[in-house]
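WARN retry 2 of 3 for item q-0093 after timeout on previous attempt; input resubmitted unchanged.
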Amino acid sequence: MNHTFYIAMSYGITAVTVLCLIAWTWLDGRARRRELAGLEASGIRRRSAKPTEVSQ
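OK item q-0093 returned
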């Protein structure tokens, strides 16, 4: 038996692992954006956001 099977399996496992990490990062980013939108809708703002002017 030559090393073709071993090399093909190594590339296959690596490709599946990288695709899983990409999917996980993408899904987590979507969840964080939804979480931020919910917080902003409830009135909580990010510190980096410019403060709104308060009229007295």
